[in-house]
Amino acid sequence: MSDAEHVRTGSALERYLALLEVSEAIAAHRELPALFHELAERLPGIVRFDFLSLVLHEPARNTMRLHILESREPSPTTPGSELPVNQSPGGRVWETQEPLVISNVDEEARFPQAVQLMRRHSIRSVCMLPLTTAMRRLGAMGVGSTQLGAYGESDVEFLLLVVRQVAVAVDNALNYQDARSYQQQLGRERDRLRLLLEINNTLVANLDLRGLFAATSSSLRRVIHHDYTSLALIDAETNQLRLHALDFPQGKGLVQEEMVGPLEGSPPAKAVASRQPVVLKSADCEQARQSEMARRHLAEGLKSACFIPLINRDRVLGTLNVGSLREDAFTEDDVDLLAQVANQIAIAVGNALAFGQIAALKAKLAEEKLYLEDEIRTEHNFEEMVGESEALKRVLKKAETVAATDSTVLVQGETGTGKEMIARAIHNLSRRRDATFVKVNCAAIPSGLLESELFGHEKGAFTGAIAQKLGRFELAHRGTLFLDEIGDIPLELQPKLLRVLQEQAFERLGGTRTIRVDVRLVAATNQDLAQMVAEREFRSDLYYRVNVFPIVVPPLSERTEDIPLLVRYFAQKYARRMNKNIETIPAETMEALERWRWPGNVRELENLIERAVILSQGPVLRVPLTELKPVGESASVSVDTIATLEAAEREHILRALRETHGVVGGPRGAAILLGMKRTTLQSRMRKLGISNWQMVGSARTE
C-alpha cells in the first residue's frame, strides 16, 4: 500500500461522522481504559496513528503520569511511568495549553527521556494536544505514528475537536473515580464502625473469654484480611504469656491453645513492655526466631503479624495477635483499627477475669455449703429420714456407702417404712445427683402398659399409639431409675428388663433401633423376692442382677426411740401447713404412741398425726387414740369409730358457729375461733353437710 493511500485526511463529512462516533463512545463509556480502547478503534479511519496515550498531571508530585497507552503492536511500556513536567511533551502542552507536533522524533532534543520512550515503539512523529475543561487543566492526549510528518494542520484541527470532548469524558471519569474512591473509603469506615459496634455488643452480652474471642475474630475477619488471630494473656503465677484462644483455620497444628512463652524476647512481650502495637514484616519475622513460639508461628507460614497490648485500668492483661500468610499485610489504618478493637477487648477480658474469680469463689462457697449440709444431714436429718435409732443409722450408713458407686440397689422393707426416701437419698448422694431421678410404681401400672411405660413405643406400635413416646429408661439417662414394687413386674417383661440392666440397651415397643442409655437402678419391694423365685413367680437371673446391694429398712416397731422425733416432726409439718400452732404433746399420748406396734409403719403414724392436727383446736396436740386398733378387728367397730370422729368434728364446728351466730369469716367469725382459714372451714362444712340454715336453726333452738 502506497503512502498516498495511507495519508487519508477524509472528507469533512467523514470527520464529523467520526466526531459523532467519538461523542457516542464518550456517552457509552464511564471507564477511561474502555473509552480509549474505543477511540483507538474508531479514529484510525480518519487520523492515522499507531499509538494513543493519555498523560495526566499529578499535582502532589508535579509530574506527568502515563495513565493509558493504546498501541497496535505489543507495547514494551506499561502505564504508570512519570516524567517531570519540563521533561515531558505532555507537560509542555499542559503548561502552554497549545498543541505540540513533533514531525521527526530523531531531531527532537528537548525531551530526551520521552524521545527514548518513543523510539522503543518506533514512533517517528507525534502530536500532543491539551486536555482541558472549563474547570481545570487535566493533562494531554497524544497520538503517534511510525511515519515522518504524519500530522498536518487539518489533523491538528480535527484532533482538537476530538480532544475537547475527550477532556470532558476524562474529567467525568476522574470525578467518577474520585467518587468511587470516597464511597469505598466511606464503606471501609462504615465497616470499621460497624465492627466496633458488633464487638461492643458482644462485650455486653458475653463474659466467657472463648465465646467473646470467637465472636470478635469472626467480625474482625470481615474488615481486615488476615489468616491468624489469637489472644495471649499474662499468667500472673508463672509470669508468662499463655495462648488462651486461637483462630487459625489454615494452621498445621504447630501452634495450639494453652501454649506458653516468656515475657521477654518475643514480639508479644515487646508489645507488653512498650504498651504500643508491634508490627512485624517479613524481614522482622526472620529476626524473631530466638523465641520458640515465634519459630512455631514462622513454621506455620506466617509472613507478617501485628501485636496489640490489652490495657485495662492501666494494667496490661496480654496481647491481641493478628497474623497473615502474606507479606506486609497490615497498613497503618489496620493497626489503628486493631488498637481500637484491643481497647474494647481489654475491658471485656478484665470483666471476664473478674467474673471468673467471682465464679471460682462462688463454686468454693457452694462446695462448702454442700459439705456442711452433708454434715448436718448425716448427723440429724438424712434426706428427711427422721430418727436417731441404731437400726436407722445402720441403714443410712449403707445408703451412703453405696451411693458413691453405680451398683444396683435393692431396698426391702414393709410398706410405709420410707423405701422411696432411701432411694432418693442414694441418688442425691451419687455423682448422678444433677441428672433426673425417675420413679415408676410397677404395681400401679397395668401389666399391658408397663412395657410401654418403661421402654417407650413408636407411633403405630399398637392401637392408640398416635405418637412416639419416650420410656422411663430414656428419661433417666445419666440419672437414676427407681422401680418401686419390682416384684409386681410380669414374668414376660422380666427378660427385657434383665437385658437393659446387663447391656444398657433396649428397643422401643414397635421399634427396631437399639437405644443405649446410662442408668443406675434402685429397686424396692415389700415382698420376699427369694420366695417368689422359689415359687417361679420371679426370674432367678433378674433377682441376682437386682440384688447386688440389698438394704433392709427396719419397721417402725424396731425404731421405738424414733417415734417421739417423728411425732414432733409431723405435728410441726402439718401445723405450718394448716396455719396452726401446736406447742404441747401430752406425755400420756406419747406413751400410748410408743406402745403401739404400728403395722402401717411411718405412713400410718404420719396419717394419724395429720388427723390429730386437724382436730386440735388449741396449742395441745389431741391425738384420737381410740383409732389405734388392729386392722383385723370387726368392721363395725372401725366404722363406728370413724363415724364418731366425724360426728365429733361436726359438733365442734357447729358449737363454734353457734357462738358466732353463724358468722364464718371476719375478725369475730368461727374460722378465727377455730384457728382455721375461712376457706378451709367452708370446705370442712361442705364435707360434713353443714349448711347456713342448720347454723341459724341450731342457734335459735338453743
Task: Write up this protein.
This protein has 702 residues and is of the alpha+beta class. Helix content is 48%, strand content 17%. It has 25 helices and 23 strands. The strands form 6 sheets. It has a 6-stranded antiparallel sheet with strand order 3-2-1-6-5-4, sandwiched between helices. Strand 20 and strand 21 (514-516) form a beta hairpin. Helix 7 (209-221) packs antiparallel against helix 11. The relative contact order is 0.04.
| Shape, per Cα inertia axes | elongated
Q: What is the topology, as strand order, of the major beta sheet?
A: 3-2-1-6-5-4
Ends apart, CA distance between termini: 148 Å
The chain-level structural class is: alpha+beta
Query: Quick check: average pLDDT?
Result: 80
Q: How many β-strand runs?
A: 23
Radius of gyration: 49 Å
Helix count equals 25
Q: Uncertain spans, ≥5 residues at pLDDT below 50?
A: 1-10, 374-383, 633-643, 693-702
Kindly state the percentage of residues in helix: 40-55%
Give the amount of beta strand, in percent.
15-25%
Largest sheet: 6 strands, antiparallel
TL;DR?
This protein is α+β, with helices and mostly antiparallel strands and 702 residues long. The strands form six sheets. The chain has a six-stranded antiparallel sheet, sandwiched between helices. A hairpin with a 2-residue loop joins strand 13 and strand 14.
